[in-house]
Amino acid sequence: MTEPLTIAMPKGRIFEEAVQLLREADYPLPPEFEDSRKLIIDIEEAELRFILAKPMDVPTYVEHGVADVGIAGKDVMLEEKRDVYEVLDLYISQCHLAVAGLPNTELDPVAPKIATKYPNVASAYFRSQGKQVEIIKLNGSIELAPLIGLADRIVDIVSTGRTLDENGLVETEKITDITSRFIVNPVSYRMKATVIDEMVTRLEKVIVQKERVI
Ligand code: PRP
Prior knowledge:
The chain is an alpha/beta fold. The chain has two domains: about 5-95 and about 180-214, Periplasmic binding protein-like II (D-Maltodextrin-Binding Protein, domain 2, 3-Layer(aba) Sandwich), CATH 3.40.190.10; about 95-175, Periplasmic binding protein-like II (D-Maltodextrin-Binding Protein, domain 2), CATH 3.40.190. It is built from eight helices and eleven strands. The chain has helices at about 15-25, 60-65, 75-80, 120-130, 145, 160-165, 185-190, 195-210, and strands spanning about 5-10, 40-45, 50-55, 70-75, 85-90, 95-100, 115, 135, 155-160, 170-180, 180-185. A six-stranded mixed beta sheet has the order 2-3-1-4-11-5. The chain has a five-stranded mixed beta sheet with strand order 8-7-9-6-10. The longest helix is centred in the C-terminal third of the chain and has 17 residues, at about 195-210. The chain starts with a strand and ends in a 5-residue tail after the last helix. Bound molecules: 1-O-pyrophosphono-5-O-phosphono-alpha-D-ribofuranose. 1-O-pyrophosphono-5-O-phosphono-alpha-D-ribofuranose binds near residues 13, 156 and 161.
C-alpha cells in the first residue's frame, strides 16, 4: 500500500453529513464506520486513513500535516485561523453564528459579559461594533450562562434554534452564516496534488448534483 491520504473528520454534529457526502462521492466507507469507537480508521482499498477528532481540533491536525485534508466548520476556521487552504465549501451542516440573550434585556454599556466557545470570533465581532466586552470562555452548554447570571449575552451556533427556544433565550444579532469546508495542508497539496484534486472534483460533483450550490 502506498502512503494513504489522511483525512481529519470532525466527530459530532458534522460527522454524519460528512460521511454521507463522502459515500455519495463513491468513497467506500463501510456501514460500521459511524458506530466505531476507533479514532483511526484505515480504508485500505481506497488508500484512505481517517482520523476522528474534536471539531475544533481538525484545522490543527491539518496545519501540522498529520492529516493531509480535513472537514471543518467555518466557525472553527474563523476561531482557529490556522495556516491551511480552505478549498471547497461543502454546503453541509448549515447554521449561523449569533449573539443571544434573555429577552428584553439591554446590553450593559460598560463591558458586558459574553460567554462563548468562540472567544476570538466574539472579540472581533464586538470590536467591529465599537463595543468593549468581557469574554468568558466556556466549552459547551453556552446557553446556561445567561440563565444563571454568568453572562449578559452568548455568542454561539444556532442551527434549528431549539436550544435557544427551550431555554427562553432570543437571538439579538446574527454574526455570519456557517457551513463546513474542505481544508488542505499546503505541503500535502503539492505532494499529493493528484489524489487531493480528485477528491475535490468528486465532492464538488456531488455538491452541484444535489443543488447545494446556489
Ligand atoms: C450547539 C450549539 C448550541 C446548539 C444549537 O451545541 O453550541 O448549543 O448546538 O443547535 P440548535 O439551534 O439546533 O438547538 P452542541 O450540540 O454542539 O453542544 P455543546 O453545547 O456541547 O456545544
